[in-house]
Amino acid sequence: MKPHDGDSVFAHIPHVPEVPLYAMLVAFSKDPTPLKLNLGIGVYRTEDGKPFLLNVVRRVERLLVNDMSTFKEHLPTTGMAEFNRLSAKLILGADSPAIKENRVTTVQCLSGSGSLRIGAEFLAKHYHHHTVYMSQPTYANHPNFFNAAGLAIKTYRYYDPGTCGLDFQGMLEDLSSAPSGAIVLLQACAHNPTGVDPTLPQWQQIRQLMRSKGLFPFFDSAYQGFVSGNLDEDAQSIRLFVADGGECIIAQSYSKIMGLYGERVGALSIVCKTAEVASCVESQLKLVIRPMYNNPPIHGASIVAAILKDRDMCNEWSIEVKAMSDRLISMRRQLFDALRDKGTPGDWSHIIRHVGMFTFSGLNPKQVAFMNQEYHIYMSSDGRINMAGLGPQTVPHLADAIHAAVTIGV
Amino acid sequence: MNMEYLPMGGSVKMVEETLKLAYGETSEFLKDKRIATVQSLSGTGACRLFADFQKRFRPDSQIYIPVPTWANHHNIWRDAQVPQRTYHYYHPETKGLDFAGLIDDIKNAPSGSFFLLHACAHNPTGVDPSEEQWKDISYQIKGKGHFAFFDMAYQGFASGDPEKDAKAIRIFLEDGHLIGISQSYAKNMGLYGQRVGCLSLLCEDEKQAVAVKSQLQQLARPMYSNPPVHGPLIVSTILGDPDLKNLWLREVKEMADRIIGMRTALRENLEKLGSPLSWEHMTNQIGMFCYSGMTPEQVDRLTNEFHIYLTRNGRISMAGVTTGNVAYLANAIHEVTKSA
């Protein structure tokens, strides 16, 4: 074998440091302490801390495996038609006028991430305004999708650390001063990382303001059903916007709500003014997708479609979603009660006011580091806790840790 | 059964087995951990990741693409904003390789250019360089310090033997190139819709491979965060089990043999019909596609008069030919070409 002459053309490439959250997860897995807690993950866990494969998904997998009539041929670039149709119905409602009027174009994408990126690329190519406003804070990966598409990022105020709630005034002010036509990224429900959602009246105000300023709504829906346990209820924010006849983009993920994480199943829907526009939009979306990966993976979409189109399975699924949502609420309650019973200084009511999988605990980085060191609690330094990482047996340990961190005056 | 997220770089097991296929079961590069690899969304996704990577780290470079090539190649590098140039490849007169033109273009390209090569079973022409020609191509590319990027979508599917189909790549590795490879399981494992593939870059050493891999992940992250789990599970289960792997090798050979059989049958049928043209290229070409040499007008007649559907560049997908329709097809082709 001849040695290669000269340097590699990529010899100058620096190593990318690991994303802090992932590095933390590695540290957790290497920690030999029996009593350790992983509250930094972004996935749902059972009360034993195990991954949760939904029963209805397991059922469907068996059916799919035994169905000898299926093949693994390429899907169309826009994905599985039935999946797309059912996903639009799920998020917009079965009786949505926008769907009836053929004004919605839906394409299957690689989970929420892929939907966000395809949506961003589409806007970068075809929308006249190239700035996206996102909440401060927001899901860590949000800026990356839009940056990659060449869009500029700005933020709007969202979380008020003083109240551990929504800085509604700040949000309205910042959206008011956004230039007309700017894109605004909104989390449909169960805000990641704060756990703070606007109320429905607040959503109405947001909608009115945005429509009056011609701001373009881009919804990220990754947790439908995880707030109230009811799929329709958790889609209300989006449906308010669609009901006024205006346009919007929606990125849907089935990662958490159907436990399909690694299958990468999601959908991007664009609600347009007319059916003609929707049809053109679909044709243009194909041009974005084709040079990226040609067509989306079939397996996860098959599972989703099988569940959503069958009344019994859909029912079974919604019961399992409610169970997950109930468990999160129960953990919030138990943690709050534990802190109250210990007399931990401070107001911890935000734990039960916050919704969805996450809560911004209000703990500062020093306290988080202390809890990691002394109690082997792993969580992100911004104080975000994944309630799904808790179980009834581990709540006391977390309560002890928080109590110690707060009282020792770290 | 586990549907948890894969790491950003994908399924470790799948990637390991996939590299063995391309680089060789006992490749030193694998032992020395010099290959930066990430699971990709089939071959398309691998090419796109590489194109984005090329844009980011060699922003002044351009990609040389053969004429003709798979149409999406142009779209991929265009969307990655890498300027494209073309190199001679298909020779319409011989319906074979324009070897002289190809070598000329390699020599004339500015040093350090990037060349896209089809490792085997060229799409759309079915024309592959011979082993001797590959050795020459490797030598010329090395002489100009060009970067060779292989798109290998048909390993096993071309000759029926994955080792044989990787010959071009092995020649380049032997000659000391630091290459890049896009691999796909769409055709050779029939996993089309699962989108399973792999992008690999051979680096100088392990340290560089780690750095390059981290950058590839950085490009994948804002595209889809992490790749799908299902397809790779199928691949790693098959390739990780000797019995299943043998079964797969047999099935790949069957697929390849059926295609080769259809090429032979179609050619023989045409010759029996007394076609005035030479159909040698039909059996010289390899893989799924045959560049028949028919004109767009002749193709239109095939469609309108005989209900035979193919692309207007005359490319026949041999997979669509069966023992049940080969005679009909030969007859139709003869009808539209006999007075050519």
Automatic annotation (TrEMBL), chain A:
GO biological process annotation, one example: amino acid metabolic process
GO cellular component: mitochondrion
Listed Pfam families: Aminotran_1_2
Top-level taxon: Eukaryota
Domain Aminotransferase class I/classII large: 36-402
Catalytic activity: L-aspartate + 2-oxoglutarate = oxaloacetate + L-glutamate
UniProt EC number: 2.6.1.1
Keywords annotated in UniProt: Aminotransferase, Pyridoxal phosphate, Transferase
Keyword flag Transferase: yes
GO molecular function list: L-aspartate:2-oxoglutarate aminotransferase activity; pyridoxal phosphate binding
Required co-factors: pyridoxal 5'-phosphate
Coiled-coil ranges from the UniProt annotation: none
Quaternary organization: Homodimer.
Function: Important for the metabolism of amino acids and Krebs-cycle related organic acids. In plants, it is involved in nitrogen metabolism and in aspects of carbon and energy metabolism.
Record's miscellaneous remark: In eukaryotes there are cytoplasmic, mitochondrial and chloroplastic isozymes.
Family statement: Belongs to the class-I pyridoxal-phosphate-dependent aminotransferase family.
Name of the protein this chain belongs to: Aspartate aminotransferase
Organism, scientific name: Rubus argutus (Southern blackberry)
UniProtKB/TrEMBL annotation, chain B:
All copies of domain Aminotransferase class I/classII large, residue ranges: 3-333
Record flagged with keyword Transferase: yes
Miscellaneous remark of the record: In eukaryotes there are cytoplasmic, mitochondrial and chloroplastic isozymes.
Keyword Transferase appears in the UniProt entry: yes
Catalytic reaction(s) noted: L-aspartate + 2-oxoglutarate = oxaloacetate + L-glutamate
Gene Ontology CC, one term: mitochondrion
EC number: 2.6.1.1
Stated family: Belongs to the class-I pyridoxal-phosphate-dependent aminotransferase family.
Molecular function (Gene Ontology), one example: pyridoxal phosphate binding
Key words, A-Z: Aminotransferase, Pyridoxal phosphate, Transferase
Pfam families xref list: Aminotran_1_2 (PF00155)
Protein species of origin: Rubus argutus (Southern blackberry)
Cofactor(s) this protein requires: pyridoxal 5'-phosphate
Protein name from the UniProt record: Aspartate aminotransferase
Subunit (UniProt): Homodimer.
GO biological process, one term: amino acid metabolic process
Enzyme class (EC, first level): transferase
